[in-house]
């Protein structure tokens, strides 16, 4: 079984302003509403792939009610701790000439609700995969992921971590099955400016040597890199698309890779499918549907075959 954890989910309110002038009233040509949060994005794509999974998280208020109901209506199994006060944050995304975002803070999460979440995670057992992704809310301990992993250590659980900076580095002693920074995150960690998968090899190797079993580094239009648990290097190109939405592309890569490896695919095949999932979401308004993933996957296979 695959489990995801979203500690600070959101309702993403996407607006398409005709123009954007500070200090004036601006008009939007259209709007969309999505359930957001890295773990939720992963669960949503896994659900699209018909891969059974459970989304854990913390929600509050009327926005939390909407989020849980929407997930359940879409077939995602949601196991969320409910807070007594506050409300699940709303992130406003202004998709104009460039994407501009204003993300909410989110509710205060009290210690008793943290304990309740940890108790719910006790169902995770040997052979299960737990995906920890996204930033930690300010009301939670900075080492929240470490707390979760230490609680579940020695159970044979596969950990997947996709988190920024220090959070990612702190996870490495737990030997996660997969980490997936992008090239810019790798650059911030190592004070460098890698752009291509080839540029990222020495930095991914360092992360691998520090404990990660598999390291994927996504590099946008340049493609992606995988150093697998056998220390073999895989590089995958990217299908050229019209970018519709960068939100959730990295999460979709994680979902695709985990789904394929759980099904017994080779690492090369899993990286290709992960790349197709990420690109498909980037070409969609929300998380990609299966038809788009299959189309992009076929285009990627043709691109690789013709190289």
TrEMBL record:
GO terms for molecular function: 1-phosphofructokinase activity; ATP binding. Residues 7-289 form the Carbohydrate kinase PfkB domain. SUPFAM superfamilies: Ribokinase-like. One of its GO terms (biological process) is carbohydrate catabolic process. Keywords: ATP-binding, Kinase, Nucleotide-binding, Transferase. Its EC number is 2.7.1.56. GO terms for cellular component: cytosol. It comes from the Bacteria. It is an enzyme of class 2 (transferase). Coiled coil: none annotated. Belongs to the carbohydrate kinase PfkB family. This is 1-phosphofructokinase. It comes from Fannyhessea vaginae DSM 15829.
